[in-house]
Amino acid sequence: MPLQVKRLGRTFFAEVSGLDLRQNLSDDTIAEIRAAWMEHAVLLFRGQQFTTEEQIAYSKRFGKLEHNLRDDNAFVAPLGNLNPDGSIRDPNSEQSKFLRANQLWHSDSAYFAAPAMLSFLNGRVIDPAMPDGHTQWADMLAAYEDLPQSKRDQIEDLVAMHDMQTSRSVTGRVLDPDERKKWPPVYHRMTRIHEETGKKIMYVGSQATQVVGWDLAKSKKLFVELMQHATQDKYIYDHKWTQWDFVCWDNRRVVHRQRPFDEAKYPRVVFRSVVEGTAPDVIDGKGVNELERFQAIHNKQRAAAE
Ligand SMILES: [Fe+2]
Predict the structure, then answer these.
(1) What distance in angstroms lies between residue 102's CA and the mean position of ligand 1's atoms?
(2) pLDDT tens-digit readout, 151-205
(3) Are the C-beta atoms of 152 and 144 separated by less than 8 Å?
(4) What are the structural domains of the chain?
(5) How far is the CA of 79 from the centre of ligand 1 (A)?
(6) Under a CB-based contact definition with an 8 Å cutoff, are residues 36 and 14 in contact?
(7) Of the four listed, 41, 180, 221, 279, which is most buried by Cβ atoms within 10 Å?
(8) What are phi and psi of 96, to 5 degrees?
């Protein structure tokens, strides 16, 4: 049966209905979901009451999962404002400051050499009285394609350093020496070709720190200019959560941010799983030729299949 897919955003974001993702879905259905996903970039499924194990099982159908940042044995991370005992965490705690960087526009795991491909969020604890705490996504493909050709030419071959500390600095969090060692700055091309759709898309977000060969001020001016362009209302979809919403997005095409809410008042926890990226786009400080990158990815996939 064809999927029931309804586009909600102007250029992206669709709601898929009629599926219980906890069931053991056929390969054909997974392929249909993936095709809809590549077309719309963000998919919303309502009423998905996943356990952690069920969310892992479903997420794994789309690729190899990233380990949690703080737990190498876990593939699902609870992101929210509750302590393990269920009480509301102090909004001024170091962990709250760390997570508040999610309120800046970003693509997940930009601090890895091969950043996240796909992300999944399940809204497990959502207070119906909470008036805000939405999540927003912005379509970087539509924004990139609307850029003047001169701007696209300017960023075509640029490589930028991305650093987790850059976004955390905004929320008043300093990485400790262990964290600094674990998550050093990495490099990404400013335009990347999407491995599945073949579309060229710009890659920038809150961790972008400096363009290679440029000074900091000039770099920041370019990042701000691009992000202001990409996050105009016409490129954004704003989602208000209800409990058990399951939203899945393609980090290669969209950036996202969590909107603020009264963290001392409303409990809010979303459970995240992530399919890891395929290959670095910069090696030894130089942008990898995209054809070579695809070749490397396909060779790896072929070797894994044999
Ligand atoms: Fe995120």
Answers:
(1) 6
(2) 999 999 899 999 988 888 888 888 899 988 888 999 999 999 998 998 999 999 9
(3) yes
(4) 4-305 (3.60.130.10)
(5) 10
(6) yes
(7) 41
(8) -65, -40
